[in-house]
Amino acid sequence: xxxxxxxxxxxxxxxxxALALLPFLIGKGLGNSWVRVLDFALLYVMLALxxxxxxxxxxxxxxxxxxxxxxxxxxxxxxxxxxFGLHWPVWAVLPLGALVAGLFGVLLxxxxxxxxxxxxxxxxxxxxxxxxxxxxxxNAPINITNGPQGISQIxxxxxxxxxxxxxxxxxxxxxxxxYLYYYLFLALTLLIVFVSIRLEDSRIGRAWVAxxxxxxxxxxxxxxxxxxxxLAFAMGATFGGVAGGLFAGFQEFVSPESFGLMESIxxxxxxxxxxxxxxxxxxxxxxxxxxxPEALRHGAVPMQRALFGQVLLDPESLRMLLFGLALIAVMLxxxxxxxxxxxxxxxxxxxKAK
Amino acid sequence: xxxxxxxxxxxxxxxxxxFGCGKEAPPPPKAEQPAAPPAKPTVTVKIGHSSPLTxxxxxxxKDNENGARLAIEEANAKKLEIGGAMVTFxxxxxxxxxxxxxxxxxxxxxxxxxxxxxxxxxxxxTTIPASKLYADAGIPQISPSxxxxxxxxxxxxxxYRVMANDEQQGKVLGDYATKQLAGKKIAIVDDRTAYGQxxxxxxxxxxxxxxxxxxxxxxxxxxxxxxxxxxxxIKSKKPDLIMYGGMDAQAGPMAQQxxxxxxxxxxxxxDGGCTTEFHKLAGDAGEGxxxxxxxxxxxxxxxxxxxxxxxxATFNLDxxxxxxYAYDAASVMIDxxxxxNSVEPAxxxxxxxxxxxxxxxAKIAFDERGDVKDAAITLYQAKGGKWxxxxxxxxxxxxxxxxAMEGVSGMSGMGAAPAPAAPAASTEKK
Amino acid sequence: xxxFIQQIINGLVLGSIYALVALGYxxxxxxxxxxxxxxxxxxxxxxxxxxxxxxLLADSGLPGTVVVLIGLLAAVPVCMALGFTIERIAYRPLRxxxxxxxxxxxxxxxxxxxxxxxxxxxxxxxxxPPILPATGRDIGGAHITDVQIAIVLLAVAIMAxxxxxxxxxxxxxxxxATAENPQIAGLMGVNINIIISATFLIGSAxxxxxxxxxxxxxxxAHYHMGFILGLKAFTAAVLGGIGNLPGAMLGGVLLGLxxxxxxxxxxxxxGGFLGSHYQDVFAFFVLILVLVFRPSGLMGEKVSxxx
Lengths: 354, 430, 307
What we know:
Oligomer: heterotrimer
Low-confidence stretches of chain C: none
Strand content of chain C: under 5%
Largest interface: A-B, 59 and 52 residues
Number of helices of chain C: 11
CATH architecture of chain C: Orthogonal Bundle
CATH topology of chain C: ABC transporter involved in vitamin B12 uptake, BtuC
Order of helices and strands of chain C: HHHHEEEHHHHEHHH
Radius of gyration of chain C: 20 Å
Mean pLDDT of chain C: 88
Number of domains of chain C: 1
Mean pLDDT of chain A: 88
Strand order of the largest sheet of chain C: 1-4
Helix content of chain A: over 70%
Order of helices and strands of chain A: HHHEEHHEEEEEHHHHEHHHH
Radius of gyration of chain A: 21 Å
Strand order of the largest sheet of chain A: 1-2
């Protein structure tokens, strides 16, 4: 049998090849709209991983996470669009977006340190709404965010001078814009996954888990809960900020409507449904919940035809209805999430046995 | 940590399966032409449509889709022959939930389905990002209701709309408020959406230019039902007129709450509130208020009454708001195809700028940006639970019209705005 | 001055509406520790059910208030059945699950209810028939309608009724015991399942009342009306100390007053910079401020951390 290291290498190569070929398989097989869905799914995975740090690792219920996404997106929009006439390059804007989002994370986390559970939830929810409302209204007296009209004609992401918004020809293949963005998002998602894994396996990560399990005991063990919690918020926020900047470049348009409460709730569902605190689970949750509504959009009509011979319900109503039912069903059958941590599974089974 | 080869490969494999299973609808066939047809070949032309079909604006979204669908069905009934083939039109209606992100996903889906044209979207927030995709794919897009001026300012050859934009409408309203209604102290409320704020800002500019004083500028949102606080504040400033930038779902309750507070001033609002729903929601409190709609009064237009009846008969619903515009948008598209004698986007796109089409909302022609040229805007007043047309302004700021055109056919309203002062120059504002 | 009084009245009425919904939220939270996201949707279903009945009877010649009462009587059992079903299907199986699991099912239930309402009642806004008398009273130059007076009185009456229930009856004692420690309560002979179901039944009945009053006051009902209402009510409940009945009332009224006075006056105070477009924000700001100084809400008990 090959050694573990060789197995790991082989596994990584296989997966690498599969991921590299994925957009072609999907694009040619199902259509480019599915690659676009995949791109958005990757953005959501980034968000879910970020929220996972706050909710999953540190156990802090955050219902306003989308505010950091908004901050990242608007920062990109302000620095790379005709709005202020600035056109900074992406390698400057993205890290700056991450930094500013992290600062916001600290700002929003600071007042919540003494709050427990559901009080924390409503305050974070409030912050999410506050950020959105400010963005929606900061167009007078000075026009900062252009209010509800949003900012359009944002510069697309440019790598080495090549804009990702146009089809790129190389090696005899043509890469449409959605494929190019896929590779970019994939690279950053892998980076974020890597950072998450390293964080999980570090002193900070263990401190987070300690706080999540029992804050008083953690304090008693000498963990500075205040700073550790703030760090959780900050780290989670940076991921959101990065995803936000990418989103702005991808869509080339941002408006406050994209950053509402339902989005925050959706990301939370991804984390909990996938398996709170477990990175593979969170990725699964993110992919599933981002793709499911679109699969239902495509599939609702053919499915009804197959089952009933005709279309009974509007596909739109059916789509959201099935989505809600899916949320309920998954939580009923897998309350710890689809792919929970081994520890959590043991905890939960022990609870059930009682 | 040990690298979980098995689990990850399993995950990737299952992801492939999921995607594979996601492929429900087979890729649509391209319009085919069999070689040397003895009989007339048939061709199915797909027209895409996108609007919010779930969520708070679902009633408007469905309304749009119904309007477009009616146009498609009528065209099918006519059994048109274009480019030597018998054409059947098919409407692909999609739900974008008024979310810009879903708007682009839907746009991509329609492009992949190889539609020949798109009627949509409903909201500016979805129309603008989607327009870039359609432009890149060369698919003509006609929006029935997106009014953000930016949409046509982006310079896309494929972007059109059949409704006057916020600048045009806000200006007309502002002028009307200060001139015909002689408003001196005006309060403005908007619902903080792209549409509401856009039209309110333009109104404010025009009203100020017309000599009005803005005594209050208040805000609400598009989901609110309680306006007591801002209305009380407005009441204390004693305005002559209250302008609301927003939709009927708020305008109706707002009218009621104004009456409850004992405020006598009338409201004036743009197309968002100019619906039959407004009367249902406001009840008696809706009497006497003013509103504007781009285009000419539907009942007076040739084909207008027939459209209203047919809509009611087909869908058993009342027209909400933009259905006539969606109907016109689809009809303009089909008309361009007829004139180009081709259903190919590239070919009939060249015909669109030359459009001179008699729609049910107006005589439609486009300016070089894709906006409606000489957009006429009609002002209405609520009388007896209905909107009664007062006058139509051919986009001219100065009242070139003689006294109120009640009961006169809309068409002569157009004709009576003779060349001199009027339209062209003023509607050019962007 | 009359403007100020009017704003206070506006705030009281709005606040009472929030309080009506918040009472339902807080009851369920007090017993189960669960944020019932679907509560707003139950309110919406109550409103639409009542409206359907009221529209049917609108031309029957019965006096307006009687028609509304009949509508209410129709809505209450529907909501109670709904609340009972939701608890049985979506929350009971998850009683021992990680804390966030029932939150997700609650969100799922909320989505499902919205879609069902959209399918059943359609996408349009529904108008409340003008059968209620539009009379009112004038207080110091400010106007308040009879419906609004009814809302305020109803909120107070319901809160008093609930306090009586919780503090002076056997059922209430059982509820308090379950809230304190479900296992020990079970050992003492309390049937936990029945108590929890009863709580949901009462909470849902309250939701029906709230729904009818809201649609009567604003003359409008829509399948999407529950979401924002639920959110505001949740904020109010937390402001007052979640799990605490008088706290819900206090939180609701306070929230209503903050929104009214904020929208009315902050604009002038800040020279137009922060105006009524930030009205939702004022409420959250105050909430955060209160929670910074009193982490358990205005009337919340200091919950000791259990090891």
